[in-house]
Amino acid sequence: QVQLVESGGGLVQAGGSLRLSCTASGSIFNFNFMGWYRQAPGKQREVVATITTAGTTNYADSVKDRFTISRDNTKNTMYLQMNSLKPEDTAVYYCNARRTYYPLSDYWGQGTQVTVSS
Question: What pLDDT does 46 receive?
Fold first, then answer.
């Protein structure tokens, strides 16, 4: 069992930056697919950005050119650098780590609140 712990959330003014971290209790090397998701009040959870073991990244259109996802397998940590934050980025941000080949696995963190004031 792997535990994921997010950190780095907080309150920031519009236009500001935050860096989220997701640290695993064990190795993330075998998680071929990791990502950040967010859920705003009254809305469904949505994908923000994903990254594969090979470093291939994908972003939601709403965060392209503002957010950058990365992972450091040596530190068992994934990051989300968020720049030019907007009030609509306000949400609870969750990290996810999964292995899509046998044995399958899928882990979620507890979430970290990001609040962007206008």
Answer: 98
Q: CA–CA separation, 31 vs 46, rounded Å? A: 20
Across the chain, what does the average pLDDT equal? 96
Euclidean distance between CA atoms 36 and 57, whole angstroms = 11
Question: Would you list the DSSP string of 9-34?
Answer: -EEEETT--EEEEEEESS--TT--EE
Q: Is 109 left (phi over 0), alpha (psi -120 to 50) or beta?
A: beta
Nearest to 35 by CA among 49, 19, 18, 55: 49
Q: Residue 76's CB: how many other CB atoms inside 10 A?
A: 19
Percent of the chain that is helix, strand, coil (3-state, to 5):
5, 55, 45
- The answer to whether residue 86 scores a pLDDT higher than 90 is yes
What CA–CA distance (Å, rounded) separates 90 from 115?
Answer: 5
Q: What is the C-alpha separation between 108 and 117, in angstroms, rounded?
A: 27
pLDDT in tens, 92-107: 999 999 999 999 999 9
